[in-house]
Structures are given as structure tokens and as C-alpha cells.
Amino acid sequence: MTTITKEHVHFAFSPAVQPALSVPSGDTVRFETYDCFFNQLLSEGANLSNIDSSKGNAVTGPLYVEDAGPGDTLKIEILDIAMGPVGVCGSFPQTDWDNGLLTEKYFRRFSVKDGEAEFNSSIKIPVNPMIGVIGTAPKEGEVSTMTPLDHGGNMDCTQIKTGTTLYLPVNVPGALLSMGDLHAVMGDGEVCGCGLEIEGVVTVRVTVLKDCPLKWPAAVTDGRFIVIAAAGTVEDAWKLATLRMETFLSSQADLSYEDTSLLLSLCGDLAVCQTVNPMKTVRMEIPMGIFKNK
Fold first, then answer.
1. What is the sign, positive or negative, of the torsion defined by CA atoms of 172, 272, 185, 160?
2. pTM exceeds 0.85 for this model
3. Cys staple from 15: which of 155, 160, 172, 259, with CB 3.0 to 4.6 Å?
4. Left if phi > 0, otherwise alpha if psi is -120 to 50, otherwise beta: which for 245?
5. Looking at residue 44, what DSSP letter applies?
6. DSSP of 219-252
7. How far apart are alpha carbons 6 and 15 in whole angstroms?
8. What is d(CA 220, CA 214) in angstroms, rounded to the nearest whole number?
9. Do the Cβ atoms of 151 and 139 come closer than 8 Å?
10. pLDDT in tens, 96-106
């Protein structure tokens, strides 16, 4: 198994970023990652006021997947997420998500061990490691690693975790897959602007799919099919996620749009992934078990 070390970092998804590694379709690769603060808050004495904010959300990569071409879909099986021993979480006043109660920047380090994050002596939070930023390169230009769009990016979706199969569009030769911004645990919405930010190592298997109908981020996990959409507001994002799910179900399950709308009202679940990034992300989920013959 090959590894892309965390020295191969960048801060924007772009076809201009040179690949760190090339592998055939079906290969398994490890990605070493920094936390979203570039590990600048791990040492004692560090604080939010003296870090280099230009190094936020570093991603490791990109990975060039042979035989991947524009119009294809990259299937990414998340086999394992190994975490470091310390996570960081912070809150930030005078931001879009500030509720007016904060007076200054605040952060804490949390020990992560034995499957739990130690919040304090009486609160232990079970970890659920996830990938905050994962994406392929856009067709042209560049997209900040702070921003989610149809290439993936900073989706901050709690369901992008070990055991999940993620599907992302291929816009350029080789796909150019990168990832970072791991969280040991995060609540849906990421309401203060942080999960429990942590460094780690992600192991994935990448496979090129030809003629796949998925042309935007989607995932399968825990018996559910998930569509992820990004837009300028949460309302626009949930409408886009719903539209994409309806369009997909209509084409793949031979249902009219009238029936897909009823089906999603009956068993489709909407969840806000994050409210804090430049574009907001929302996911629509549907249980796959209802489709007995699919």
C-alpha cells in the first residue's frame, strides 16, 4: 500500500496542482493529514491569535487515478480513519454564526483515547471520525479548501466516515483527489465553526466508474443513499439536494416526479451538514432497503 505524506499539502482544489502520487484504478492509498489548523494549536502556549490563518484546511494530495477522465465518477471506499491523540475545538465571535454570547476567541484541546473525547471529568463523547474536506479538482480555475461545491471540498458531512463509499465527479484527467480536515467527532451543523479538529491517516480504495449517473457528491453508508449539495444558503442547499435526489430516483427507480416527491416526504431525511463555510451543505438521505428489487 502506498502513502501520500502530509508534506504534500495545498490549500485549493485545482487542475494546476501537480499530483503527489499516481495509482491504477482499484488501488488502496493512505493519506496523512494535518488538522484544519495545520497542527499549529497542538503545542502548549499556542493560541488562536498567533497562528497563520492562511494555512487553514490544508489538504493532502492530489492523487492521480489512472484511467479517470472527465465525465467519469470516482468511487472512494473509506476503509479506515486513524486519529492522533489530541483534538482541538474553538469558537469565534463576530462571525456569521456568532449568537452574540461570545466575547473573545476561545479554544480547547481534548484528549482522544479509547474511543472517546474527554470533554471534562463528567462528559465523555464517543468519537465518530469523519473527513471534513475531500474532493476532486474542478474543471478549471481553483476552489479554496474552505469551500464546498460539486467537486466535493469542505462539505463537513458527518457521514463521510469509515465504512462509507463516497462518489465524486471526475472533471480532469486523473481526478486529482485530495483530502484533509479530519474531525474526531462533530455535530450536524458544526454550529460554532469547528468539529473536534484532529490530525490522522485515512485509508481509501479508489475506483474509476464509467457511465455512472452520479455527477455530484453522493454516498452510501449504513444502508442509506445520500446526496450532498452546496449552495449560498441552507434553504437553497436543501432544495438542491432534494431536486438531485428526485431526479436520481426518477431515472433509476422508474418513478414519476410526482411519486418521487411523495416518497421523499415519507422516508427521505434532510440534515444540515454545516452552516459555517462560504457555501452551506445539506444532505438528503433515503433508506436503500425500501427498493426490494434494486
1. negative
2. yes
3. 172
4. alpha
5. T
6. EEETTEEEEEEEESSHHHHHHHHHHHHHHHHHHH
7. 19
8. 12
9. no
10. 666 677 778 88
